[in-house]
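Trying the structure run again after the queue cleared.
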Amino acid sequence: MFLILAVGFVNAALYSQEIKKISSENFPVKFTDTLKIPIKDSATDSLGTKSKDSIIKPIELLESIVIHSADSLIKQDIKKNKIILFNNAHIHYKDIDLTAGYIEINNNTNIVWAKGIKDSIGEYSQLPVFKQGAEESAQDSIAFNFKTERAKIWGLKTEQDGVIIKGETTKKENDSTIYVQNIKFTTSKKDNPDYYITTKKAKIVPNKKIIIGLSNLVITDVPTPLFLPFAYIPLTKGSVSGFIMPTWGDTAQQGYFLQNGGYYFAINDYVDLAVLGDVYTNGSWGLRTESNYSVRYKYSGNFSFKYENLINSIKGFDDYSKTTNYNVRWSHSQDTKASPNSRFSASVNLGSSTYYRQSLNEYNSNAFLNNTLSSSISYYKKFIGTPFNISLSVTHAQNTNTQSITMSLPSLQLNMDRIYPFASKSGSKKNALQKLGVTYTLRGDNKIDTTDDFFLKKEMFETAKSGLQHNATFSTNMKVLKYFTLSPNANYKEVWYFDRIHKTYNAEENIVVTDTLNKFSSYREYATGVSLSTTIYGMLKFKKGRLQAIRHVMRPNISYSYRPDFSSFNEEVQQSEDPNDVVEYSPFSNGIYGGPGAGLSNSLNFALNNTFEAKVMSKDSTKTEAKKITLINNLNFSTSYNMAADSLKWNPVRMNAGTDLFNKN
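Done. Tokens:
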């Protein structure tokens, strides 16, 4: 708070005239503990009451009806034309609302007097609470003129833009100006604050400004030697553009500095922008931009860019060095109500690996200790009325110790949900052809591995790996011999690359030279299979004891899979002076998805899955139904026979088991 008041030093010439008004014009009467209305010829006092004239004029009616109520007493004095309200008294007039323990309405002068009352234990309670429009204040007592809307307040307490204001005596001129004597400013919520700024006189314009005279910082009721001759405090609702005052200091390497000075742009209700800068006497400087944006029910986020040009020591010294660092952060989130069929999100944190260690204006200790930076930007969309959806993402991972950077720029995936092209129009699937389901996936990736030195440079893109991969699956099922399910399946994969490697033998140097050819290339793979499965149930019942039965479920499965040998896509290269010394290699070995599989696969697979359950009666005789208990979740056996292998065609039998029998939950 006290730092805010220091702004007054910069604007001394601008606000000195306001202080003179406070001192000479706005307190023309002496404040006392009781309200006295002097009678003067053709004069008006501070509350706007007029002196009595020899000619009695008719009393003017109030512009609106005064609504009043009280719990204990409503007394009307016809002779003096007064109304007295006692205990939880309340009056309402136009946009004015007043509650207090005691309220007195004088219809002759249009003045309302309100104060608290003593409760059963003698404490002063039901203090007046005055509301006018959006403004609200509490006080010990108040005198208010309905016609002129002027007021005199004792023991004021109100809050303006987070600043709690307590005044001894207050004069309210109109809706826009308030003058206060013996005032305290604090942000503490305590009745007796631990810290506050005290001043003799102040002018308050609600929601606009506070102008105060000589002020003193007080801590635990002890005045400190910190004084301000006067100060100007803006009170605004919402965002307002303006200058941001810098902080100053000095360092051993960069000298004196000004940091975090700049300008704040309140662009509109949805986005703002702050431009800040740092300047050092040795020539170092920094620039930062920070922005927040939000659209209700749609999206929100923030963005910041930081750049520093740092000079260490002085040119000519041994420890002189010059470095540049930057950091970009972006966070974006979409409201779930914005679009149910599309999503966009972003979380970006990238920059120089040395930024958090070398920055002169970064105090985020967690970021300093973290040796990794990561980013992710993703977009998803579901195409209504079609089985397709698409997702696009950009990822970044950076190790600040090794300065290595891995990026996916971008990664694309197009998915087609399972469709049944031969199903009937009603959607029913009765035979194997109608049950034939097809899925399709297109995946595209562009992967970059680089370092800080080559980031966003030509070398960064020269080593990128990219490609497209198509995958399609076909499957159906049918009943065989009533109790068996036969499930044929097939899958197809095709990979596209935009370069390939080519190896040649250099006879002069007796080495194999590898070149990268920038040309479109592709390969295809496919495989097929079929499985036969059924379910067998067994039940063992018991006539005595709590154990009623044990059920055994077996699920045997026999499958056949076949994949051809795709080594035909491979090429050969001579690797020594002997022309017959050749080696086979895949021209797609450096591709992002690798190369086609080599070797024939032709195998039978056998699997048997078992589960055991028991029915046990409860010890509680009132329960008539048995409780089902799982004895063994799964007891699985599997093996395979590779018909394409030269030897050892049988694979070992594998077994695994699991149970929840000993789980106490």
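Confidence is low (pLDDT under 50) at residues 1-63. Worth checking whether this holds up in the mutant runs.
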